[in-house]
Backbone:
């Protein structure tokens, strides 16, 4: 993890595992009759997590799985009855487990948190335990519930969908114990911010040195969350976990590392430089970029230009709408991004780069092919937005709002072609498929001259000149114009 923390390029990782393919929508199917309840308690002094996995019906055999390497942290396991229980690699196997019986196991949580293994644990400043659930939760593939019992003075942030407002009970979707996600136990200040329609972000600041710093970081993220609501007023997912972890870093960026995961529920992790001022954080784009990934499903490598493109487009658009940056600033930064994309990976199509970025890098190209993915993708979304306004009289956000209502899965991968086809259907147009075909097959960065003309936009020496032509103003306002997030926003 240490190497990643200092990496700036790419700063955003969109991660999910292939095995989740096909479980789309399964969270919705979690019923109150979940098979296993995992009761989690903590022995703080011993640095241990204790889990009782209790059956609500008879099992002829029950297997609990954990991620590879988790057995290094497994301290012991027993059954509440006298039946057989054995470990085989990363599995605990119980035969003939009757309803009501429990499998008890203990995990060296503190030690796992200090492993600093890429997918195991991350050491936080004051010793909170940040651990992959795959390490500490040995669980069945079936859906279940998790009930949390914390000792006094310890808080937690978990990646799953909460079932109660006190965030003591969580719904576990079906799908094994091998997902990238994070749980934190310790000095965790989690506050919930509401969107419309019951959507929420659970924003957790870990190890803030003072109450004031925690308040400041929450204030910053509330502003970012508010900016993401300027798209259509609610969050695209029901409940997402946002972790803010302060780190020491020599990076120039106030947020040296950010990523979105959607293994155990949609989540964002933001690693913030300890000495970053709120002013620096407000000027940074990483957080809104990550929040913008909520608007689309996981699209795999093949669709990376679409996912990174949307986040790169919206990191500018939504901040301008919220008044965090000026309209001119947003156009200037989009234009600068397009410039970086134009200078990278010429001669290769977006489809080819997305499939194999390394191969594209080896060709005679200036710049990282990553820039072509991000900003070539952003160019696609800008042109789609303009085309929607011209041809359908609607904005991109309206199509994405409809998509989130009907079709956005919280887990699992969506084929990029199917995603595009769905956006076409929802917009009753062929805007997305037409432009996707055009953009993904070009061997050079697209010529945006006619789009710039429609927008009345000219950028000279990094300064945007915005024309006073009424049509251009109207179009620009539709995209970047100030929007007050329709939802009254607050902490609870
Ligand atoms: Zn990204």
Residues:
């Amino acid at each position: 993890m240490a190497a990643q923390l200092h990496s700036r390029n790419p700063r955003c990782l969109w991660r999910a595992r292939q095995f989740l393919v096909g479980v789309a929508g399964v969270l919705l199917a979690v019923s109150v009759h979940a098979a296993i309840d995992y009761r989690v308690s903590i022995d703080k002094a011993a640095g241990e997590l204790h889990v009782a996995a209790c059956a609500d019906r008879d099992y002829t055999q029950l297997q609990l799985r954990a991620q590879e390497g988790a057995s290094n942290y497994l301290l012991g396991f027993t059954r509440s009855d006298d039946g057989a229980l054995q470990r085989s690699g990363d599995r605990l196997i119980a035969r003939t487990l009757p309803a009501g019986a429990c499998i008890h196991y203990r995990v060296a949580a503190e030690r796992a948190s200090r492993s600093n293994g890429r997918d195991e644990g991350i050491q936080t400043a004051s010793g909170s335990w940040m651990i992959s659930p795959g390490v500490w939760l040995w669980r069945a593939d079936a859906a279940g519930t998790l009930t949390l019992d914390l000792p006094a003075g310890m808080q937690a942030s978990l990646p799953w969908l909460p079932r109660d407002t006190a965030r003591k009970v969580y719904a576990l979707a079906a799908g094994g114990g091998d997902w990238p996600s994070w749980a934190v136990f310790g000095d965790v200040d989690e506050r919930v911010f509401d969107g419309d329609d019951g959507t929420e972000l659970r924003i957790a600041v870990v190890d803030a040195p003072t109450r004031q710093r925690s308040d400041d970081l929450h204030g910053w993220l509330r502003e970012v969350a508010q900016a993401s609501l300027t798209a259509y007023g609610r969050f695209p997912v029901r409940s997402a976990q946002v972790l803010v972890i302060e780190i020491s870093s020599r990076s120039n960026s106030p947020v040296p590392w950010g990523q979105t995961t959607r293994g155990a529920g949609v989540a964002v992790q933001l690693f913030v430089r300890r000495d970053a001022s709120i002013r620096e954080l407000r000027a940074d784009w990483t957080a809104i970029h990550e929040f913008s990934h909520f608007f689309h499903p996981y699209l795999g490598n093949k669709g990376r230009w679409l996912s990174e493109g949307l986040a790169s487009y919206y990191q500018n658009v939504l901040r301008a709408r919220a008044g965090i940056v000026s309209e001119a600033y947003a156009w200037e930064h989009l234009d600068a991004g397009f410039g970086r994309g134009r200078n990278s990976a010429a001669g290769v199509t977006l489809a080819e780069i997305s499939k194999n970025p390394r191969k594209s890098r080896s060709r005679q190209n200036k710049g990282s092919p990553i820039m072509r993915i991000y900003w070539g993708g952003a160019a696609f979304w800008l042109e789609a937005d303009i085309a929607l306004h011209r041809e359908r009289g609607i904005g991109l956000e309206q199509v994405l709002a409809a998509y989130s209502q009907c079709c956005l899965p919280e887990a699992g991968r969506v084929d990029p072609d199917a995603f595009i086809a769905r956006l076409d259907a929802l917009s009753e147009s062929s805007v997305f498929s037409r432009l996707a075909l055009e953009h993904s097959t070009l061997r050079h960065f697209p010529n945006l001259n006619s789009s710039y003309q429609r927008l009345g936009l000219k950028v000279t020496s990094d300064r945007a000149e915005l024309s006073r032509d009424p049509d251009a103003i109207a179009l620009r306002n539709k995209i970047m114009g100030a929007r007050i997030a329709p939802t009254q926003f607050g902490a609870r």
Summary: Residues 12, 14, 289, 293, 308, 311 surround zinc ion (CB under 6 Å). The longest helix spans residues 369-391.
